[in-house]
Amino acid sequence: TTPCGSKASEHGVIPARDSEWSRCEIETVGGVDGNSSGLLSYGTVNVINHLVTQGPSHPSSTVLGRMQGVEARPDPVNIGFHILSSILFETGKYNGSSLEIQGTNRFNLPQRELSVVGGTGRFRYARGYALLDFL
């Protein structure tokens, strides 16, 4: 299990890996060498569980929920993952609702765009995009 932090940007609720106070998990469950494949190895499949916050990742930021799903590295040359995930809201007016996110997270880009392909509760029939900024 790999720990990581989570944050949201001004563009919306977006997970990232930049703090120690909030943790998430990335567990490699398969790959060319089975579950002993490296986190960034070609063919690796990971299960993700990121904490999602309203503002920058520091202890005063409001926790909104978690981003959970799977990611797989489909490209042997360029580092990146195809992501299928749900942002599960656990507090406030969106409690119990979710957003469904899909797309390729290309590590060589400073900002990544993923598709919002649906949702539940207050986000039923959601369509759009999510921007990921890694600081």
From TrEMBL:
One Pfam family of this chain: Dirigent
Superkingdom assignment: Eukaryota
Record flagged with keyword tRNA processing: no
Record field: transmembrane: none
Subcellular location: Secreted, Extracellular space, Apoplast
Keywords carried by this UniProt record: Apoplast, Secreted
Chief location: secreted
Protein's GO biological process: phenylpropanoid biosynthetic process
GO cellular component: apoplast
Residue stretches in coiled coil: none
Similarity comment: family membership: Belongs to the plant dirigent protein family.
Function summary: Dirigent proteins impart stereoselectivity on the phenoxy radical-coupling reaction, yielding optically active lignans from two molecules of coniferyl alcohol in the biosynthesis of lignans, flavonolignans, and alkaloids and thus plays a central role in plant secondary metabolism.
PANTHER family in the cross-refs: NUCLEOPORIN-RELATED (PTHR21495)
Subunit relationships: Homodimer.
Name of this protein: Dirigent protein
Organism for this UniProt entry: Taxus chinensis (Chinese yew)
Record lineage: Eukaryota, Viridiplantae, Streptophyta, Embryophyta, Tracheophyta
